[in-house]
Write a structure and sequence with these properties.
The structure is a homodimer.
Chain A (H helix, E strand, L loop, with lengths): L7 H19 L4 E2 L1 H8 L3 H9 L5 E2 L3 E3 H11 L6 E6 L3 H9 L7 E8 L8 E2 L2 E5 L3 H8 L3 E4 L3 H13 L4 E4 L5 H4 L4 E4 L2 H13 L5
Parallel strand pairs in A: 4-5, 4-8, 5-7, 8-9, 9-10
Antiparallel strand pairs in A: 1-3, 2-3, 6-7
The structure holds a DNA duplex.
Chain lengths: 212, 212
DNA sequence: TAGATTGTTAATCGATTAACAATC
DNA sequence: TAGATTGTTAATCGATTAACAATC
């Protein structure tokens, strides 16, 4: 599809471009130059042009970029024109917050099932979904074929459940556990969110004096 | 303190080193070589030695590193031997989950106050803390001097509240909003967690075929 | 046309990996 | 002492920035 291998650094900037372009669009911007966008985002114009040119030629010399057009292109690159069916494993505090808080549809996903082991939670409703028993996981996957899963379960359970899910055809994980999925499975897509590590990084920033 | 400026890439690996060393310690490891640690973590031995040598000489030729000793050193570098007083702004789904879910004490922080605007939430207890009205924020800060804040509030409220907090002496933010704090305030420590962007990145990984 | 701004190549900068002398 | 493994310098690789010809 895309030209060469896209570097991770570029990929991580794409959602932010998409967000900023959405805001510009809402504020009535029709066109924007790489220089102006760079200023707003705290990047360099060069970097922005390099990033976009990984995927194609979206601008026009002497004019700049059409805001809506560019936003749409980046949305397509990000796969936001499709919705991958996704399930959530673990409906504890964090799992429930994520299920309730995020706009899955606008981020390329459709949350279609929630599973937990805790009998107190099973049956409870979150948005339009009921929390199911994990015993129903296999049957559910056979019927609905989720392709992605959110892991909000204890670390000890992660390895076992991930194996199961992969065998049921899940090939993408949004991983909130400290289980190192990617080390074990090079072939699945993994996006890690390690909140504890993130907080620890902030502690470093406070306690070191090379604040820059 | 530390030798030169430490690169961001190194800093982001520190919490993970700390975690792995903790696990090794729990599993009875006394010593470990950079080669063995590299294998376990999916890094190179070279990188590990380079990383550690940013901060000092923690190993011994011919022996390797003492697991507990190294863990302690990295803990000190991360500031985990202190606890920075921290408050949470926004006790919605996500804010409550974070307050309940994370082990602040072992990550260099002490969560001492929770604030919200929603009357339905005020007075509710989370762990050992009661949710306070945001009206009490200034008085609380004057009395307890929190130095760090978690922002789990709507984007529109973020700018105003961040300004206030900075004027009350808060100089570090764990930012879950899409408000670009760092663009406005170069002098405060900011750690961003953009869950939406993270999910969007996963969407890219699924929909692109340069899976690597 | 003249001015602006892209797409793209070249230069720089930084981070990772390799190599090896120092030393436990 | 011999073997192992560090700390550190040098080489490589990749990402960012600068420059500029192409072109709208």
């Amino acid at each position: 599809m895309s030209k060469n291998a896209i570097s991770n650094s570029v990929i991580r900037r794409l959602p932010r471009y998409y967000r900023f372009l959405g805001e510009l669009e809402n504020n009535g911007y029709i066109r924007i130059s790489s220089r102006e966008l760079a200023e707003k985002m705290g990047l360099t114009a060069s970097q922005i042009r390099q990033d976009f040119n990984c995927f194609g030629e979206f601008g026009q010399q002497g004019y700049g970029y059409n805001v809506s057009g560019l936003k749409m292109e980046i949305g397509k690159i990000l796969g936001l024109d499709k919705q991958t069916p996704m399930i959530l494993l673990g409906a504890g505090n964090l799992g429930r917050a994520i299920a309730a808080h995020l706009d899955f549809k606008n981020r390329g996903f459709d949350l279609i099932g929630i599973f937990d082991t805790n009998p107190d939670l099973i049956g409870m409703e979150i948005g339009e979904l009921k929390i199911n028993s994990i015993d129903q996981l296999e049957a559910f996957c056979n019927e609905h074929h989720p392709e992605a899963a959110i892991l909000c379960i204890p670390k000890e359970a992660a390895a076992v459940q991930a194996e199961k899910l992969i065998s049921y055809g899940v090939h993408a994980f949004w991983n909130f556990t400290h289980y190192d999925l990617r080390l074990e499975h090079k072939d699945v897509a993994v996006e890690n969110v390690h909140l504890g590590d993130s907080l620890t990084t902030l502690s470093y920033c406070i306690n070191s004096n090379d604040n820059k």
